[in-house]
Amino acid sequence: MRIALAQINATLGDFNYNKDKILNYIQSAKEKKAELVIFPEASLFGYHPFDLLEREALVDQQTKTLKDLVKKIPAGIFVLVGGFEKNKNKKGRPYYNVVFLCAKNKILKTFRKELLPTGDVFDEARFIEKGKLSENYFKIGSKKFFLTICEDIWAWENKKGESIYLENPLKKIKKQKVDLVINMSASPFFQGKLKQREYVVQKTAKHFKAPMVYVNLVGAQDEIIYDGQSFLVDKKGITRFSCLDFEEDLNVFDLDTLEDWNGRGAKNKILETEQLRKALVLGIKDFCGKTGLSKVHLGLSGGIDSAVVACLAVDALGPNNVKLFALPTKFNQKQSFDLAQTLAKNLKIDLQTISIQSVFENIKSVVDQEYKINEFSLVHENLQSRIRGLLMMAYSNKAGSLLLTTGNKSEYATGYATLYGDMCGGLAVIGDLTKKQVYQLAEHFNKEYELIPHEIITRPPSAELRPNQKDQDSLPEYDVLDQAVVDIVEDRKRAKSKIDKWLVDILMKTEFKRWQSAPVLKVSEHSFGRGRRYPVAHRSKECV
Amino acid sequence: MRIALAQINATLGDFNYNKDKILNYIQSAKEKKAELVIFPEASLFGYHPFDLLEREALVDQQTKTLKDLVKKIPAGIFVLVGGFEKNKNKKGRPYYNVVFLCAKNKILKTFRKELLPTGDVFDEARFIEKGKLSENYFKIGSKKFFLTICEDIWAWENKKGESIYLENPLKKIKKQKVDLVINMSASPFFQGKLKQREYVVQKTAKHFKAPMVYVNLVGAQDEIIYDGQSFLVDKKGITRFSCLDFEEDLNVFDLDTLEDWNGRGAKNKILETEQLRKALVLGIKDFCGKTGLSKVHLGLSGGIDSAVVACLAVDALGPNNVKLFALPTKFNQKQSFDLAQTLAKNLKIDLQTISIQSVFENIKSVVDQEYKINEFSLVHENLQSRIRGLLMMAYSNKAGSLLLTTGNKSEYATGYATLYGDMCGGLAVIGDLTKKQVYQLAEHFNKEYELIPHEIITRPPSAELRPNQKDQDSLPEYDVLDQAVVDIVEDRKRAKSKIDKWLVDILMKTEFKRWQSAPVLKVSEHSFGRGRRYPVAHRSKECV
To answer: Rounded to an integer, what distance in angstroms lies between the CA atom of residue B522 and that of residue B12?
Structure first.
């Protein structure tokens, strides 16, 4: 029996688009002689739905679309496709997260997810009722399968014997001999995530003493980037074959031999920085594609952050869809402008220059007079940043173009960003990257030739909002700060060092800025954005 | 046996402040001859903690503070106080939401919450593990009690037999004869919420055939406003006595007679609009107090929204802590300015006037030239709004004052607000009020005399961003729009009317603005803000 893994990029809420894509992949799977094709979690509805599940009419549309879909499934192939199903009982939450086993003109069986994730970006307990994994065995011909959906396989203890779940539903159910265990997922990317997946898949395969396929969604949805990287393991949990990362992919294997993979074979060692680049490029591309925008723009300061965002944007959308601006005052060094111009030229984009000096002076004189200000201060630094934001948003209004915001995670963590100024924009592209990772990406872009002028990488970072300003006048050295950001924000460790304590304190004080931040493309285990929900009005003092 | 209900306003994360307050209330309860004093849910830690629970050190601090607290409890009184407790097992989520039964020098018993809310603003399944209600019986002397925490009593079926919970934990446990059922809550206010509380409390009291006390938190935390209104019911569930709304309160009753209430007695019928006013005033006051800010400011346009926000701010903080600005262009009618000035005078506040006409013209000329714009458009409307935002934020920087934003729910729903313009600010005071409710509040403020000039209430609403603009050039009539907002956003109904369908469509299209909105004071069952989590990048079309 030949089985296909259809790693698709579904669009949230576009049921007809998803249906057509699913039908195309079914067709391709059939051409590769597959008798069963497996899609990712919720791929007919799209994922992560968030509170779209409040809108009952949308689930009705999906249900109707499913009926259309099964009518068009060709004979001779079984299909596993995910979506949501109404809970028709009076008790319990309104939906189940389900997989439909379909064939030509038929929905043969529905399987329900049992374990509902509620950590980080996940909110399944808001609208989803628990299913029972014990009902998820099924047969096709003489072959027996056991089906799980995403979180269902994540209750295994870690090496310290810990789990956030009291019980592992896989251990509770009666174990039956199966030919294949299936997991259909929408699992977000972060660096190191693949290892975690391999761990739980290996545990599950060994538990059932059966081979297992892990079929993951690909594509980005707001902040969340699904990386694909679906894979097949043998009954010892050893990876046999993998699908591509950050791209749609279709692969077929023979269930008896676990051979005949038609793709690129077992995964090669992939460069971490290249994965980061691919993730962010997909993040930009899908955010635009799925919101219906085709063009983006940003201010190019001559610094490293905007340089890297510009390169990512060009990778995602091509130079014709990226517009760059230089918005200098007299505080901006000539070198900054020259470097921005060289980069723009390298990217084959015109750099439109709008000096904001006279606008700044005009507003400054009003502000100084009205608010009785006699000396240069933070007020004036923020003014410059906000004038830039205002001009960039005017361009958004004029051109229907998405402003990309360029702050990095270390800046966001410390509040080293101006609310309604450089925080303006519809997508925070590198908001989950430490400064170090931004440099790594820059070096990566320069692997073959000097795309980003070398001086952009080597000069000391500066906001250039007053004479001779350097980031390190206000912030710790970035290598020290970056480590604290990883420890405190990503790993949620206790504050140990002096910098840790300083960071915890400033994190709490600057939460009001991040509350109003643009969506942040998530590439770490714990990023700013919807997966990190801190209060503003409180008086906790962790480090007193 | 005399029992006290201590309805306190705890501050999230300020354990010493909360401890001192709790000790003061214990003292007062003792003076009123109470032998048991009951505080609200999590009142030692403060509530809603959101992801502060990531910071283990904070829970440790709370645990340490609890030890200090019990040392200072006087002899002869038992205390029920809420907080969080570490889950010391390797399995399960890291904390329990608990109540400690304490007496002088002793923590006698710990009770754990079983039902964990995950809807709307609640996220308890992120960090909290389930307890077992069956362990929550206890005795003091000859009296027997059963203790529940907030959501524990919310699994009762509604009149249609529906519940979002599969099982009611109260029905599962073995029923014992008790003298009193206790519920300790942190239950947010919205109009109509009290009726829901009375329903579940009545169900619970009848179930146990025992009187019941419901002790609720008071005070605001970011978007959420706890209204207090703690109450006592007899074994039939009939309300005997109530505590004050939106204020701290302490009341004592005799358990044998359910009499001897020292407070104001059974609740009076409270005006809905007056409750709305109290809620929002508390929202502003606590947001400032708990973030450490004492001053606020806003632009007064001569329209109804900013007028009402100014009145609320003065109620919350007094006229000396509220600063008002007029920021006209030539599009603003003279009447608007005059009305703003009259209102400011009535509120006993100077109105600082900053004409933004020349700044607007200066930026407009740059924008028109650089972006090749030949005619007046949305670009220029937004420019004006953003220049105002920029000036108001400069004042924030200068004076350490909180900018209040003045958009209402009907505007937010339709995206009739400028991102980084009039959406600037740290708190959206009336962001959960329909336009109708804004008018009701205005009339309410004018109950005794004409505080808000009558013309502000009667003139047609206008953003005054172009000549002769009226809101109804772009929006449906507010009474129609308001009803659609209630139906679609609050009640999450299916779209029926043409306006409903238009609203669902525009809601989806404008989500990117609300993603970046300031915290919205929640006074309805479903408000914009953290309790409503919609995606931006999707292509759902509910109404095609």
So the answer is: 18
Residues paired with residue A6 on neighbouring β-strands, in sequence order: A250
Instruction: Tally Cβ neighbours within 10 Å of residue A269.
Output: 5
The dihedral sign for the CA sequence A490, A298, A333, A451: positive
Judge whether A54 counts as a catalytic residue.
no
Q: Would you tell me how many other CB atoms lie within 10 Å of the CB of residue A362? A: 17
pTM over the 0.95 mark? yes
Whether A535 and B373 lie within 8 Å, measured CB to CB? no
Over the stretch A394-441, which tens digit does the pLDDT of each residue have? 999 999 999 999 999 999 999 999 999 999 999 999 999 999 999 999
Q: ipTM score here?
A: 0.96
Is the pLDDT confidence value at B472 over 90? no
Average pLDDT over residues B56-76: 98
Whether CATH 3.40.50.620 fits B276-475: yes
Q: From CA B441, how far away is CA B259, in angstroms rounded?
A: 37
Question: Tell me, what's the pLDDT at A269?
Answer: 58
Q: Name the residue ranges covered by the structural domains of chain A.
A: 2-265, 276-475
- Phi-psi label, residue B518: left if phi above 0, alpha if psi -120 to 50, beta otherwise: beta
What distance separates the 2 farthest-apart alpha carbons in chain A? Answer: 85
Cβ neighbours of B65 in A, within 8 Å: none
Task: Select the residue from B352, B363, B510 to test the A interface by mutation, using most A Cβ atoms within 10 A.
Answer: B363
What CATH number belongs to A2-265?
A: 3.60.110.10
Q: Which CATH superfamily is domain B2-270 in?
A: Carbon-nitrogen hydrolase (3.60.110.10)
If you ran DSSP here, which 8-state letter would residue A518 be given?
P
- Return the DSSP state at B228: B
DSSP state of A510: T
Q: How many CA atoms lie within 13 A of A30 on its CB side?
A: 15
Residue A264: is its pLDDT beyond 70?
no
Question: Would you say residue B233 has pLDDT above 90?
Answer: yes
